[in-house]
Amino acid sequence: MAYLTLKNINKIYPNGYHAVHNFNLEIEKGEFIVFVGPSGCGKSTTLRMIAGLEDISNGDFLINGKRANEMGPREREVAMVFQSYALYPQMTVFDNIAFGLTLQGVDEEVIEEKVKHTAGILGLTDYLDRLPRALSGGQRQRVAIGRAIIRKVGVFLMDEPLSNLDAKQRVTMRSEIAQIHKSTGATTIYVTHDQTEAMTLADRIVVMKDGYVQQIGTPYELYYDPANVFVAGFIGEPPMNFIRGTVQQGKIRFGANELSIEKKLGAKAAQYEGKEIVFGFRPEHIELGRTAGAYQITADVELTEMLGDNTNVYVTADEDKAILKVDPHDTPEIDSTITFSIPVENVYLFDGETEFVIK
Ligand code: ADP
Q1: Which partner from 17, 209, 210, 335 sits 20 to 30 angstroms from 356, CA to CA?
Q2: How confident is the model over 140-189, as pLDDT tens digits?
Q3: Residue 138 clears pLDDT 90, i.e. is over it
Q4: 45 C-alpha to center of ligand 1: Å?
Q5: Which of 13, 18, 45 to mutate to test the pocket of ligand 1 (most atoms within 8 A of CB)?
């Protein structure tokens, strides 16, 4: 039996806004689940329904198979880490981490041992006597996480916990959160709009858009086997290139280049004649030059961005545009004309109407 079950969960706010539609998910003990999607897609709402901070309008939420819709937050044994880590400014790091246990009247010796253990996991041992104002943003966030993980709970819920940190701190804290999860093994549900955070942290990712789940899968599955145009475009940086076109005589066009649909779909291609298709390929899945058997595209280089480990090459062919990721040593000249190849297995075709992947 799954540890947490969300069955057809819906949220309709009192003003009538339907923020979450038929959300279904089973979570195993110890899993690290990430909800990802653009701002306003219903991630926090779903997390807050799991936390017991928001009523579930419709559907069932089960903990260990037992209906938990009406349980209060304490009874659900969840701990939440919020975006704004409200620490008590007049209390030391020790007292901030200990706060929940102090309130519960836990024995002082036990508190001391637990705070020290937690501080050890979080690398805060040398900071226990400090006040929050004498800490960096990353250290404050670790204190907030410490406050949550010191309690023995079943599930950690994190709502954009890194969004107040600068880019460098975010990367550091991200690996620390992964480390904390490894050492505690606690079931975690983590909300973010950042696909890189989702990809690096999650066992499984739930991609959401406009209140609907788009796909649930491992980072590998979402990257290599996206269910639709939205997921394909959301996961990966720079995003997947999309060429939209109506199939004419088995082909769509990218500038003057003709791309055969049959090459990818075989006999199934015929049913798409006259229909709109989306041809997708990732910037990193191209080869410069002509590779036999692959799709080949000739285009003009508009701009190049050297990023160190790779170069982004912006190409155009008439009105059509794409981004290619190449080895910096192979960076083409701006304004030159290049040919690149896309191996057939690296091409994704989507139905232009439903936007679902065609297999
Ligand atoms: P996310 O976390 O993905 O950014 P939210 O779950 O916070 O999105 O919000 C989902 C949608 O529900 C948004 O359109 C938001 O404006 C709306 N919403 C959130 N809270 C309320 C509320 N209390 N009343 C009405 N609508 C709300």
Answers
A1: 17
A2: 888 988 888 888 788 999 999 888 778 887 888 888 889 889 888 889 99
A3: no
A4: 6
A5: 45
Atom in ligand 1 nearest the alpha carbon of residue 11: 12
Confidence of residue 285 (pLDDT cuts 50, 70, 90): very high
β-pairing, 311-317 vs 295-306, is antiparallel
**Long-range contact set of residues 234-240: C-beta below 8 Å, sequence gap at least 24:** 234/36, 234/37, 234/38, 234/195, 234/207, 235/195, 235/198, 235/199, 235/205, 235/207, 236/195, 236/282, 237/195, 237/196, 238/283, 238/312, 238/323, 238/325, 240/280, 240/281, 240/282, 240/283, 240/348
pLDDT tens-digit series, residues 34-62: 999 999 999 999 999 999 999 999 999 99
Distance in Å, CA 21 to ligand 1 centroid: 13
pTM: 0.92
Q: Which CATH class is domain 241-351?
A: mainly beta
Ligand 1 atom with the shortest distance to the CA of 37: 3
Atom 19, ligand 1: residue with shortest CA distance = 45
Question: What is residue 228's DSSP assignment?
Answer: B
Evaluate: CB of 40 within 6 angstroms of ligand 1: yes
Q: How far is the CA of 212 from the centre of ligand 1 (A)?
A: 13
Residue 154 confidence (pLDDT): 85
* Closest ligand 1 atom number to CA of residue 42: 6
Nearest-angstrom CA–CA distance, 144 and 247: 55
CA of 44 to the centre of ligand 1 (A): 7
SS3 call for 99 = helix
pLDDT, average across residues 327-350: 97
19 Cβ below 6 A of ligand 1? yes
Q: Is the CB of 245 under 6 A from ligand 1?
A: no
Q: Examine domains 4-234 and 241-351 and report if their fold is the same.
A: no
Domain ranges of the chain: 4-234, 241-351
Q: Is the pLDDT of residue 330 over 90?
A: yes
Q: Whose CA is nearest to atom 5 of ligand 1?
A: 42
